[in-house]
Amino acid sequence: MTGKTLAEKLLSEKSGTDARAGDYVEAEIDVAMAHDITGPLAFQTFHEVAGEDADLFAPDRTIFTIDHHAPADGVQAANNHNAVREFAAKHGANQFDVGDGICHAVLVEEGFVRPGDLVIGADSHSTTYGGLGAFGTGVGSTDLGTALATGDLWFRVPQTMRFEVDGDLQDGVYAKDLILRFIGDVGFDGCTYMAAEYAGSTIESLPIHERLVLSNMAIEMGGKTGLVAPDDRTASYLERQTGTEIDLDDAFRSDDDAVYESVHTYDATELAPQVSKPSNPQNAVDVTEVAGTPLDQIFVGTCTNGRYEDIKIVADILDGETLAPNVRMVVVPASKSVYSHMLNTGIFQTLTEAGAVIQNAGCGPCAGYHQGVLGDGDVSLATANRNFPGREGSMESRVYLGSPATAGVSALYGEITDPREVQTNRYDDTVFAEVLP
């Protein structure tokens, strides 16, 4: 019998079976999450399945966030917010309100996710948690509502597509560039219902905030989850950031003789900064192919690249400078912690003096709800995860995707610019912890 992939090991553990790719298993859920868009429908399902007075399977491991229409941009949004607050209070769940942060940032920062966990979220980017070695995956509101009552869910064990990267990344090349290249190579549906596993010396050298970027965007190639094997860096991060101590063992790594659907290998030294052209993340090209494209707006933030380290890259580039004429910049940190850290370190002032508008933590511009949507004909460069037609506003707008470094440099010139033309610095995950308790 051949060895197992990380995905097979995680679902074997949670189902109590010898699970292999293609098997169907009933697995125990560790953590469940919903937000102000997906929560109300999940609550309805929960009541239909379990009754009005039923208890949640694990209130202490159930998290609800108000982050998409935050602050409320209309009466319906406000009513949804109240529904989340009322349900969470009634059932004793963890609830994070307007400005506290995007769900995927909150779950990581607050220590709800540990390596080996099975985490489901009523949001497609719940794959993010794989950056910590958890099996994170998105589910529909109906499935979530059922799981809130039962504490388990059926899964088909996915095959694994492995991405191996070795060598040192060039200056100006980051995890965002890696994942855009992967998506460009396999296509937006090339990894459908597979686990995307990221490995190699380059991946092992990445700080946690960059690993989370890779896992977050696994869904953009159809991935069921996106996994990075946890290691000493993971353990150090969790202990420092959340006070969580973990014991790593061989169960958190794919076996040497594991069977993969396919393996894609890369030499990090040859990778250039990437930009995904409108209107699909799979339209990834070297930045040089689109350099010079005029921009109207630059959007920095989202659950993909709204962490402190991401925003600091942009701020360092803009320090003492101003935005190019006729270019606006919207910055949305991923959490209140990031927002506070920006204030404490002077980054907030640096960005506002350069001409940027800084919003409270949330998902507004990324999903095209509010806080800076695009109009007809607008062209934007965003650090977001999607650029489908109308994703950030008008169906007549065009959105390019890139890294924070590409966004920061492009803001100086008002057009898409190769970040290797301006000095950019790489930050490890010790930076954030310098101010946070």
UniProtKB/TrEMBL annotation:
Q: Which family does it belong to?
A: Belongs to the aconitase/IPM isomerase family. LeuC type 2 subfamily.
Q: Does the keyword Signal apply?
A: no
Q: Which reaction does it catalyse?
A: (2R,3S)-3-isopropylmalate = (2S)-2-isopropylmalate
Q: Which enzyme class?
A: lyase
Q: Which GO terms describe its biological process?
A: L-leucine biosynthetic process
> Which Enzyme Commission numbers does its entry carry?
4.2.1.33
Description of how the protein assembles with itself and partners: Heterodimer of LeuC and LeuD.
Q: Name one Pfam family in it.
A: Aconitase
Protein name listed in UniProt: 3-isopropylmalate dehydratase large subunit
Arranged from A to Z, the UniProt key words for this protein are: 4Fe-4S, Amino-acid biosynthesis, Branched-chain amino acid biosynthesis, Iron, Iron-sulfur, Leucine biosynthesis, Lyase, Metal-binding
Amino acids binding [4Fe-4S] cluster: 303, 363, 366
SUPFAM superfamilies referenced in this protein's UniProt entry, alphabetically: Aconitase iron-sulfur domain (SSF53732)
From which organism does this entry originate? Answer: Haloferax marinum
- All residue ranges annotated as the Aconitase/3-isopropylmalate dehydratase large subunit alpha/beta/alpha domain in the record: 23-290
* Pathway noted in the entry: Amino-acid biosynthesis; L-leucine biosynthesis; L-leucine from 3-methyl-2-oxobutanoate: step 2/4
Tell me how the cofactor is bound: Binds 1 [4Fe-4S] cluster per subunit.
Its job: Catalyzes the isomerization between 2-isopropylmalate and 3-isopropylmalate, via the formation of 2-isopropylmaleate.
What is its cofactor? [4Fe-4S] cluster
Q: Which GO terms of the molecular function aspect are on file?
A: 3-isopropylmalate dehydratase activity; 4 iron, 4 sulfur cluster binding; metal ion binding
InterPro entries assigned: Acnase/IPM_dHydase_lsu_aba_1/3, Acoase/IPM_deHydtase_lsu_aba, Aconitase_4Fe-4S_BS, Aconitase_4Fe-4S_dom, HAcnase/IPMdehydase_lsu_prok, Homoacnase/IPMdehydase_lsu, IPM_dehydratase_rel_enz, IPMI_cat
